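User: structure tokens for this one?
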Amino acid sequence: MLWPYYIAIAAAIAAALAWKLDAQGKGKSKSPSSAPPRPNDAKDAAEPSLFIKAHAMSGYALLIVRGVLLDLLEALVEGLLHGSPLSAKRMSTSTTRGAGGSRVGPNIWTGWVVFYTRRLYCRIEDCWNRPITGEASSSLELCVRKRRGYGDAAPLCMTGQTQRCLNLGSYNYLGFGGVEPLVTPSVISALREHGACACSSRAESGDTAVHRKLEAAIAAFLEKPAAVIVGMGFATNSTLIPVMVDPTGNGKGVLIVSDALNHSSIVEGVRGSGARVQPFAHNDMAHLEAILRRATLVGQPSGMPWRKIIIMVEGIYSMEGQFCRLREIVALKRKYRAYLYLDEAHSIGAVGPRGRGVTDYLGVPTSEVDVMMGTFTKSFGSVGGYIAASPELIAQLKRHSAGFLYAPAMSVPAVQQALSALEVIMGANEAEAGL
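Assistant:
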């Protein structure tokens, strides 16, 4: 049981050495040749120093030591009470305490995962999954919780009190997720007229004029001929990409060149397509071109040319806060006759002079992007997602995609929320709004 102490000591030594090396590095004058410039997208410019990293690791190690000491203390006290202090048998079959009292039996609080939960995560779990009351707008009412009982793992219970806080924990980018005078009344009207849920897929009885109106509006907003909406943003990628690659689900002979940091929904969709996948380093245009050049010259492993090559990128990578290099990507797409799939989940409505996403922001015509994907969960304060593309592709998606055929349709109030927010962004209503 001494290994936690060794970890703490090693982390402290590492922190001291890192601080010394970091201080020496800052004291030296850097010549232009000694520090070659890095690519802009290689690493974040605000990368923490070795000292900061080591300091964080040492704190983590100290928390582990604290947890082990508490476990030993509990085992010691329990052993003394039962007459067998620090007995291995007692520690493995000790009394397991729960919300309903205590019982004697196998100790379920064993193993690293449970140790981490009890001794580390439970200390800070109140920072996440915090219940709210009222609207989730630019500010919100948090329900105050306190621990009932002793110890880090004591349950958090409601106190009946609330606290007004600034909302920095959502992607309600434009504030439409709260009560908005230009949007909320139409949503309430849709709720009264159509109810809370469609209770059917759009291929059956879940399709309404409001759904078709939103599809036409988002297509016009993106200057695309057609669009399809789906009830979940994740499912838009995961269920429509396979059908986009091939309507029969056989992606053999198709190459997908995907940014290494693409969202997991894209990864799931690509996996389900059956196509060959070749990731390229994040925003690395040289690597992307090398893959495209080889794919064009060499073709498939069998020697046959690829049926199609699809480049998949995101407009804004939310975890990195970076734009894709869309101009260069479009140039490579045209040079090697590939198709381009652009996920604008985090950029649509939020960037660009007209709020039309990264294409608008970078001045790239939407005609240069073959398939444009986005969600209504960020800038529009609703749910669901869309794909805008050619009428032929949209018809193919509606005929074959499980996300359209079998999943419940977006509820009409949610559709109306997205539609009304879109009209405000476009300035299509009577109010002096819009981008």
